[in-house]
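Lecture 7 notes: from sequence to structure.
We start with the chain below.
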Amino acid sequence: MARREGIAARGARRAAARWAVVAAAAAGLGAAAPAPPSAPRSVLLITLDTTRADHLGCYGHRPSPTPVIDRLAARGVRFDTALSPAPLTLPAHASLMTGRPPRLHGARDNLRFSLRDAETTLAERLSAAGFDTAAVVGAAVLDRSSGVLQGFRNADDGVRVGPRTWFDWRERAASQVTDAALRILPRLREPFFLWVHYYDPHRPFVAPEPYRSRMGDPYDAEIAFADHEIGRLLDRLRAWGRDRNLLVVVAGDHGEGLGDHGESAHGVFLYQATQRVPLIIAGPGWKPAVVRHAVGLVDVAPTILDWLGLPPLEAADGASLLPLAQGRGKRRRERVYEMETLYPELAYGWASLRAVVRFPFKLIDAPEPELYDLAADPGERQNLAGEPPPGAEGLRRELARRFGEELTAGVADRGSEPSDARRRRLASLGYAAATAPPGGHRPDPKRRVDALERLDRARRLVQEGKPEEAVPILEALVALDAGNVPARLSLAGALLAAGRPDRAAEESRRAMALDPRSPLPAFNLGRALRVASRRDPARRAEAERAFREVLALAPRHADARRELAEMLVEDGRAREARDLLRAGFELGVEDPALLLLAGRVEAHLGDLPAAEARFRRALELDPSSADAWEQLGRARYARGDARGAAGAYREALARRPDAALARTLGSILMNDLDDPAGALAAFRKALELEPAGPDADRVREIVRELEAAVPAR
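Predicted C-alpha cells for the same chain:
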C-alpha cells in the first residue's frame, strides 16, 4: 500500500487493517491451520537470487554447494517443482510478497516498473497483525523505489557497498548481507518477520575463497558462499534463542540459463532453467517430506499466513501449500501457474513471452508456440505444439483468459508514452519520436538468442580496453535489431571509451527514443556530453539537463547524482552540489563514492564536522577505501587534531602504498607530534615507494637528519 503517504495516514490504515485481521480471525475466516501455540510464531524468509533448483544438493546436484540448505530440507518440506512467475528479480519477488503474478501486481520488469502502492504485501499484513518487520536486500533492484519493501518497519537497502559492480546494478556480498541482518536482529521483538535477500548467485560470479577453489564451477561457488552465510545467520539465531517457533522459508526468485537453449543469463526465455526454483520450508508442524506437485512462488505468502492462522490475502492468485505439506492434498488437481517476460520486448525489441503450466504440460506463447511435457522432457527439447497430447487441452484457453490482447499486441507500445512535461524535457536533450518497431510482429527470441553472446563478447572487449574492436560488433547488432536497447547502450559506452563522445551521445539519444522510461540512456547521454564538454563548454548545460532527467526518473540513482555534483563543483557551484548531495542522502542514497564527494564539498565550504561525518560513514560502508581515510586525515588535521590525522593517514597508507601519503604522515609525526622515530619510518617508506621522484633528494636529507636524531636500536 502507499509507501509515500503520511505517517499519520499509515498509522490509521495499519490500525484499521490490524482490527480487520483480528475480527476476521475471530469469525473463523481462512483459519485452515491449527491454532497458534502460546509462544509467538516468527518467520524468516530467505530469498536466493538467480538460483536454479538443480544446482542445490537437496535437489540432486553433486558435489553439493549447499550443506546448510540441505540440512534444512532434511528436516522440512522440499517442493520439487516450484515455479517462478518471471525470470527477473523484481517481478518474482513482488509475486512472492503479494501472492499475485506480475500481470496483476504491475511490477513487470526490473527497470521500468515498481510494485503498485495499492497492492497489499505479506509484510503489510503481518505488520497489521502485530509482527515486527525487517528486510535486508542485497541488490539495488529491490531497494525502496521498487515497492517491495512496503510494510517493513526496518528496511536496509544500503546495497552500494564495496567493489562488486556489474553493468547497471550494484550488489553487496553475502557476508555483508548477513552482517546487516545480524545488526537488525537484536532489535526485532517477537513475533517478527525478517526477509533476507542474497544476490550472490547473480553475475558476475566472483565468490571469494575458499568457495571458488572448492567448487570449481564459479556459479556453484557463488551458491556455496551464500549457503555458508545463511548458515551463519541460522547459527546466530539459534545461539540467541530466536529460532523457537520459527518458520524458515528458503526460495529462489528465478534461475540462470547457463547456456540452456542458448541463454547464458536470464530474462529472455521461460524455460525451466530459469523458472524452476528451490523452495524449502521448515519449522513447527513441517515434517520431512518432498512434494511432487507443481507449486509457485505465488503460493508462499498464502502459505505463511495459513501457518500463522491469519486470513488470506484477498486478491492472491496463489494458495496455501499446508495441505500438500501435511499430506492432505495428494489428490488435488494440478493448479495452473502463469509466467511472463516482457524483457525481450522492452530491452531488445523482440517478442514478449507468456506461458501457463498445468503440470506436466507447459505452453509458451511465442511467434512460434511451444508445448512441453515437463515430466517426460524436463530439458524442454521436444516441442509438442504441432500435435498437443491428451491432457494439454485447455491451456490455450487459459492463456487467452489470463493475458487476452497482450498475446498479439506489444506491451512496450502501450502505456509508455511520456507525459507532455517529460516530452518537453526530452526534447531539450535531443529526444525524437520513438523508433521502436511496432507491436504485432516482433522477432521470436529463439531466432535472435545468438545476439546475446555477441553482445556479451562486445562488452568483454570494452572491459579489456579494446572498445574499437567492440564497436563494429555492436553496430551490426543494432542494424539487425533497431529496438535493441542494451546493444545501443553498449555501443554508446564503447564509443565513449574509444574517445568518440559525440557519437556516444547520438546513440544514447536513440536509446532514449526507444526506452523513454528508463534512466539508463539519459545517464549514458550525460556521461558522453560531460566528456564532450571538455572541448566544447557549451555541452555542459546539455550534460546537466541529462543528469537531472535521470534523477527525475530515478531520484536514488547515485551515479547520476555524483556526476552532476562533480560538474557543479567544477563550475564553482559548490553550494548547489552540497544541496544536491544532501537531498540524495535524505532519500536514503548511500554510496561510498557519493559520501566521499560530499565530505570534500563540506570541507571546501568550511564545515569540517560535517565533512568528517561523511568520511566516517563512507568508511563504515567501505573500510578498504584509502581515499576516504586520506580525506578523513585532511579534515582532522584542518581542525587541529594531528593525532587523529596521523591515525587516518596510517590507515590510508596501509591500503594504498603511496609516497605522498607516507611523506604527509612523516611530516605530521615530525612537526606536530614530536615523534622522530615514527617520522623516520614514514619517510623511509616514502623513499622505498618513490626512490627517484621529484621529492626524493629532500626526503633523503630528512631521513639523514632523523637518523642522526633517533638513537639506533
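Points to note: The chain has 29 helices and 15 strands. The first helix runs from residue 7 to 26.
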